């Protein structure tokens, strides 16, 4: 009798976590979606060779802002504490993440909070349970529907990022502390591993952001934190803006 040999073919693309809340554009859990869901939101931007790279920041979905399919999937008062979460099929035992906003339709994204190490929470599985992260919505964000984005670098030098539309309401609580740094003066969200000449640490360290902004959540220290190498002076504008990945995997 012959045993059954199951050959598991490793895919070339291994990132595999995506923003779960707030539901990103074209995600299966986005209530405003009218098309087939995007099955690749878990994949890294630098996945699978030069012709399969996705466009930073939002895989092109930033153009859905203002469209019924791009309606807000969360409402957050400026200055409030909120949480976001991620889910997928592989947390890569951590990494470093940033969340932030664009108030100019994706032209620039500025950091709200940087999580240096242990993002995703390495010992908490593939979420969304156990993969909740708190942050403060910058108190001086203008009211309106803005782009929220999550970025993640794991120790395999993979970038993943998803964007969601979020409605920011005016900060009304009298005791809301002022923003530590004006939103317009916060650093832009960090971009690397996307053929822009900047590379994150590999295997033995988790990313320390060169410009983490005023709100930093430190990880668990399981890995040392290391700055990226290469030409990392710039930000989002340096990233790859080539063709979208589509279904070419
Ligand atoms: C969502 O993704 C699917 C699969 O890639 C695609 O067919 C569809 O056009 C996308 N929807 C939007 C609104 O871009
Ligand atoms: C994800 O975050 C949202 C908003 O905080 C929360 O309502 C939801 O319960 C979270 N999901 C899980 C599985 O914790």
TrEMBL record:
Keyword Signal belongs to the record: yes
Leader sequence segment: 1-15
Alphabetic keyword roster: Signal
Name this polypeptide is given: Lytic polysaccharide monooxygenase
Organism field: Baudoinia panamericana (strain UAMH 10762)
